[in-house]
Amino acid sequence: MNLHLKDKLFLVGGATSGFGKAITEQLIAENATVIAVARTLEKLKELQKISATIEIIPGDLSDEKVLDTILHVIGERVLTGAVINSGGPPAMPVLDTKLSDWDEAYKTVVRWKIALTQALLPKMIEQQYGRLLYIESVSVKQPVENLVLSNSMRLAVVGYVKTLSQEIGTSGVTLNILGPGFHATQRMENLFKKNSELKGIPESEIRASVAKQTAMEKIGKPEDFASLALWLLSPHSSYISGQTISVDGGLVKGTMG
């Protein structure tokens, strides 16, 4: 299938690891141009070696100065789509949290996504086309153990995206959310380590137990996740908006998963 992404411009957050990197690599394979944003300059420079069509912006997406830089780099060009993606808050159970943890989680999970969306949206509406794709977590469908901050704050993003998709439904701009389950990312490895410490059992046992929770009994690959992301970023997804789609190997047990 021709995804019609050649020479199109995309913004990808968290582009040097996990889902962001997999999506960036596949966009480049489709001959798109990518503005890649991530915290570490060295990793961005390494990513840039893949293609001359990768432009890099080092920084934290929750920093307003980084948002200003993004808008400056886009300039007068037509931005076809954006992958709104970044790391999540730290893993912890409810009773270990402090109010300061909740304040910080709001900033790292919710606030910057609203700011970025509101900055990109007017131009997309003006051009009557755009694809906004939010990478959240399967936790918006089914809570994940010891991830109360993510379980809670990511649901706020779902409410925001769903409401906005209804308000601008005739604009030609679509907004969708992908909720990844257990994939082979550094984030997942960190969770294995955290749960190993909390439960006092080896990481290998945690990993096997996690895989067993899915219908497929395996942990996913970021590359497989990215293939659906690319379709949602393409013109083929024009009648899909306001949806939260789980990519989880059958982890979610509910019929609306």
TrEMBL record:
<dbReference type="InterPro" id="IPR050259">
    <property type="entry name" value="SDR"/>
</dbReference>
<dbReference type="Pfam" id="PF13561">
    <property type="entry name" value="adh_short_C2"/>
</dbReference>
<protein>
    <submittedName>
        <fullName>3-oxoacyl-[acyl-carrier protein] reductase</fullName>
    </submittedName>
</protein>
<dbReference type="InterPro" id="IPR002347">
    <property type="entry name" value="SDR_fam"/>
</dbReference>
<dbReference type="InterPro" id="IPR036291">
    <property type="entry name" value="NAD(P)-bd_dom_sf"/>
</dbReference>
<comment type="similarity">
    <text>Belongs to the short-chain dehydrogenases/reductases (SDR) family.</text>
</comment>
